[in-house]
From TrEMBL:
Record carries keyword Transcription: no
Assigned protein family: Belongs to the short-chain dehydrogenases/reductases (SDR) family.
The keyword Oxidoreductase appears for this protein: yes
Keywords: Oxidoreductase
Single GO MF annotation: oxidoreductase activity
SUPFAM superfamilies, sorted: NAD(P)-binding Rossmann-fold domains
Superkingdom per UniProt: Bacteria
Protein's name in the database: Short-chain dehydrogenase/reductase SDR
Listed InterPro entries: NAD(P)-bd_dom_sf (IPR036291), SDR_DHRS6-like (IPR051122), SDR_fam (IPR002347)
Pfam families: adh_short
Length: 224
């Protein structure tokens, strides 16, 4: 049976690299994103994953259409700068919505499906700012929202133990993308990590060797 995987945020720079990696490995790739461009082989849907009801409806239909689905890489998110004095409640809520709710609503809906079919694997994407206060000091709302994904992964792993359900976390440093190069033109891009390297790391989690790992946190930092 061909393996199926859901990739949210598949139309982004990282999402496209992850989608193409899994396509080359023979997966049926189901994606959410804003455009089909460059992803003609991905079964794409455009939607707002921060809308809980819409997310539930979409995923329930998806599971009916693809009952073998047992993997989800959740890449939807956003970034906002701001130190502690400048971080407002609205900034906190926006980062919570973009980085946490978009992952939580997917996990919450897919969890019963994974449990019923005997297992499944979630991959969440955190940030160095979720661990390191120095890294979070200039993007407080972003760092706090990403730290919730670390906590969510821990809860999933406790719940999923003996159910075949696990959650891994990928923690990239600065990702080498055109927008980041434009925003930081004087940086040493060779020290950043590429979307392709992150995609390889994510795919490793689904190999026979990667399948032996539990409570996994992979820091894909390169030299940044």
């Amino acid at each position: 049976m061909q393996k199926s995987i859901l990739i949210t945020g598949a139309s982004g720079n990282l999402g496209q690299a992850v989608a193409h990696k899994f396509l080359t490995e023979g997966y049926t790739v189901l994606g959410t994103g804003h455009t089909q461009a460059g992803l003609e082989k991905v079964k794409m849907t455009s939607m707002d994953l921060s809308d809980e009801q819409a997310t539930q409806t979409y995923l329930n239909e998806l599971c009916q259409q693809h009952p073998a689905l047992n993997a989800a890489v959740l890449l939807v998110g956003g970034y906002a700068p701001g130190n502690l004095p400048n971080t407002t409640g609205s900034m906190l809520r926006e980062m919570y919505k973009l980085n946490f709710e978009t992952a939580y609503f997917v996990v919450h809906t897919l969890l019963p499906h994974f449990e019923a079919r005997g297992g499944g694997h979630f991959v969440l994407v955190a940030s160095r700012a979720a661990f390191d206060a120095k890294a979070a000091q200039f993007n407080v709302a972003y760092g706090l929202s990403k730290s919730l994904l670390i906590a969510l992964a821990e809860v999933i792993n406790v719940y999923g133990k003996d159910k075949g359900i696990r959650c891994s976390v990928i923690v990239p440093s600065t990702i080498d993308t055109p927008p980041n190069r434009k925003d930081m033109p004087n940086a040493d891009f060779s020290k950043w990590t590429t979307p392709e390297a992150i995609a390889e790391a994510i795919h490793f989690l689904f190999t026979d060797a990667g399948g032996q790992l539990r409570e996994t946190v992979l820091k894909v930092y390169n030299e940044a």
